[in-house]
Amino acid sequence: MTQIVQYNVTDAAIEKMKSEYMALTVTGLDDEIGFKQVHEARMIVKSHRVEVEKTRKGLKADALEWGKKVDAEAKRITALLEPIETHLQTEEEKITKEKERIRQEKIRIEEKRVAGIKEKINIIKTVSDISPSRSSEEIKKVNDYLSSLFISKDEFAEFEDEAKSILSFVIFKISTMLSERLEYEKQQAEAKAEAERLEKLRKEQEEAQAKIDAENTRIAEENRKIQEEKDRIEREKKAEQERKDREEFERKAKEDARIQAEKEAKEVAEKAETERKEREAREAKEAEEKAKREAEEAARREALKPIKQKLFEYADIVKASLSQYPSTDDAVINSLIADFIGAVEAAFNDFCDKVEAL
After folding, report:
1. Residue 133: is its pLDDT beyond 80?
2. Of 17, 172, 188, 352, which sees the most CB atoms within 10 A?
3. What interhelical angle do 331-356 and 160-320 show, nearest 10?
4. Which carries the bigger pLDDT value, residue 130 or residue 221?
5. What pLDDT band is residue 2 in, cutting at 50, 70 and 90?
6. Which residue from 19, 6, 24, 82 is spatially nearest to 49, judged by alpha carbons?
7. What is the pLDDT of residues 50-85, one digit of tens each?
8. Are 160 and 153 in contact (CB under 8 A)?
9. Exposure string (b/e) for 231-247, b if CB count within 10 Å is 16 or more?
10. Residue 236: partners with Cβ closer than 8 Å, 6 or more residues away
11. Cα(73)–Cα(304) distance, rounded to whole angstroms?
């Protein structure tokens, strides 16, 4: 006996929900009624879907065959319910996602507001980072600027106390720096005045020393002139002695040079005579060898005359045979014969030239 699978939601009920709920929409963030209707409808559809799943599991426990029928019917009904639920969920998410975006935007705006206030506080801190080596005028400008600042609740909000505390600290820091700089500049001015006084005293001492140096220089110049006169007389004596020594050296050098020149001239003459004899002997030998080579070459040429004559006669026979080529009207053959005769004549001329050179 086949048992009919039944769930607590009918096709007619599903069609009714589809007809009513698929038309539901949310027009915007202010459409609270529309959002409420979509949410409530989605929860109804979801409860039916969950109930179908629970029923499916309960019915399926009876038997495998019955479970297959249960699964098939549940799958069919679920397929009908899911588009409705998906539509309603999409409509609901329009609002939930927009609400989340607005929430994140508020967070971003708040973070930007806080960052802006902290940046202003940081600027106050940064202004106080001026170097202590700057002039008192520059430090005073910073001090005046900080003193002119006003921390208000409207501008710094919940950071008002922190900003006031930091401003008080940096004003104290800059005021202290200004006092220390003024004291330093005062000491520098006093040191400069003392240095100028000492410089004036140094110049006066230098002028007095310059006068003493000038007198010493005059005396030294007179001593120098006296010494120069002594040195001149001494140089003249030394120069006269050097002249005599040089004349004696030059005389001796000339005599030595004359003797050396005579010796070298004799050696050159003897060397030239030896070279002349060697050259004449070498030339005589070369002339003898040349005459011998010429005689041998003449004998060789004379011995070759009979064979050279025969070679010329053979060449004449070969050249005369060139006129005995067969006659034809074929242009190609005539061209080949002409090329052949030209090549043979060139070889003939080259052959004769080389035989003649033997």
Report:
1. no
2. 17
3. 80
4. 221
5. very low
6. 82
7. 888 888 877 776 656 666 777 787 888 888 878 887
8. yes
9. eeeeeeeeeeeeeeeee
10. none
11. 133
Phi, psi for residue 317 in degrees, rounded to 5: -65, -45
Q: Which residue has the tokens 């005396």?
A: 219
- Do residues 163 and 124 touch, judged by C-beta distance below 8 A? yes
Of the candidates 59, 74, 84, 86, the residue with the CA atom closest to the CA atom of residue 9: 74
Amino acid at 6: Q
CB contact set of 318 (below 8 Å; sequence gap of 6+) = 344, 348
Residue 105 predicted with pLDDT over 80? yes
Question: In this predicted structure, which of 88-92, 124-128, 215-219 has the lowest mean pLDDT?
Answer: 124-128
Indicate left, alpha or beta for 152 from its phi (over 0: left) and psi (-120 to 50: alpha).
beta
**pLDDT for res 61:** 64
Task: Tell me the C-alpha to C-alpha distance, in Å, between residue 119 and each of 7, 72, 112, 130, 163.
Answer: 65, 66, 10, 18, 11
Do 92 and 29 touch, CB atoms closer than 8 A? Answer: no
The better pLDDT of the pair 53, 127 is held by 53
Domain boundaries, the chain: 11-117, 127-219, 305-356
Q: How far apart are CA 176 and CA 184, in angstroms?
A: 12
131: left (phi > 0), else alpha (psi -120 to 50), else beta? beta
Q: What is the 3-state secondary structure (H, E, C) of 213-259?
A: HHHHHHHHHHHHHHHHHHHHHHHHHHHHHHHHHHHHHHHHHHHHHHH
Left (φ > 0), alpha (ψ -120 to 50) or beta: where does 7 sit?
beta
* Type of residue at 269: A
